[in-house]
Amino acid sequence: MIPEPYSKIGILDAIRAAASELGEPLSRSRFLAHSGLTEYRILQHFPSWRAALRAAGLEPDNTNIRLEDEQLLRDWGEHVRKRRQIPTRDQYRREGGISASSFATHFGPWSTIPYHFRQFAEGKPEWADVLALLPTAQPPKPSLNTNPLPTRSQPLPASGPRYTRLEARPTYGDPIDFRGLRHEPVNESGVVFLFGIVARELGYYVEVVQAGYPDCEAKRQIAPGKWQRVKIEFEYESRNFRDHGHPPERCDIIVCWRHNWPECPAQLEVVELKNIIQQLAKSDD
Q1: Which segment of 130-139, 185-194, 221-230, 246-255 scores lowest on mean pLDDT?
Q2: 255 contacts: CB under 8 Å, gap ≥ 6
Q3: pLDDT tens across 62-98, in order?
Q4: Measured on CA atoms in the order 81, 83, 88, 92, is the torsion positive or negative?
Q5: Can the peptide bond before residue 214 be classed as cis, meaning omega within 30 degrees of 0?
Q6: Would the CA dihedral through 143, 144, 148, 149 be positive or negative?
Q7: Angle ∠(87,93,96) on CA atoms, nearest 5
Q8: Which residues contact 154 (CB under 8 A, 6 or more apart)?
């Protein structure tokens, strides 16, 4: 029996085939471009790309397990040189050679990178053209906030201060700091926005988002060279689909923030974004 391309066995077979054709060590980016698979498909079965490689019987590339400050700043400087301007975090995320979140781990806020680069490049003639493009950056100021918002690695404590809600003020979900989205969604609109951020990474190409039911039509790849149209309904929680009285036979997929409908009809696929972004965030770090 031929394994399904998105099954664990199918992905391992695709990794081995790519390594045979492209050579080793096989990088994640080269594999994704070669196979047409999305990173999410890998993370459905393995905790990381390196774990998937090992499961396929291959050795991961160990040359860049820990990036040094100089490596990061050199790559950023080359990007500035190429663009002739300082990139935004999103621009670097799309075009840079290293994960943009690695800079946050080493240097803090993205806005401080020009200052750190200047400290690194001062007195080095090979970087004179890049330094000329940078502002005279001031040293980063220490935060005056002694109780900063938690990040993904600093979740809110299960117990702690809880305050009375103030009237006529918006409320926010827990902090997540995921690709420009500062807080978890608290309604269906937030789910639509978050899906837009990750849709292509999940393998969806959106055809239309509309006011009527279902909310969205998209296409996704079902086999190499073959795509299929799917109908999507957005909900904050999956059981809202039931509460809104939607007919299941006219929909294929519920995209929600939280899946809390155990009795969901078997023909409906549920895409729970809360779980998905936790997996995708691993590849950002």
Answers
A1: 130-139
A2: 191, 195, 216, 232, 233, 234, 235, 271, 273
A3: 554 445 788 889 889 998 998 888 888 878 877 776 7
A4: negative
A5: yes
A6: negative
A7: 70
A8: none
Q: Where are the domains of the chain?
A: 8-55, 69-131, 175-284
Strand-pair category, 204-209 with 181-183: unpaired
The span from the CA of 210 to the CA of 204, in Å, is: 16
Percent of the chain scored above 90 by pLDDT?
32
Q: Name residue 218's beta-bridge partners.
A: 206, 230
| pLDDT tens-digit map of 130-151 | 998 888 756 665 544 444 444 4
DSSP characters for 138-157?
A: PPPPPPS-SSPPP-TTSPPP
Backbone angles phi, psi at 216, to 5 degrees: -150, 145
pLDDT exceeds 70 at position 108: yes
**pLDDT digits 0-9 by tens, 210-225:** 999 999 999 988 877 8
Encoded amino acid at 183, one letter: H
Strands 204-209 and 216-223, sheet pairing: antiparallel
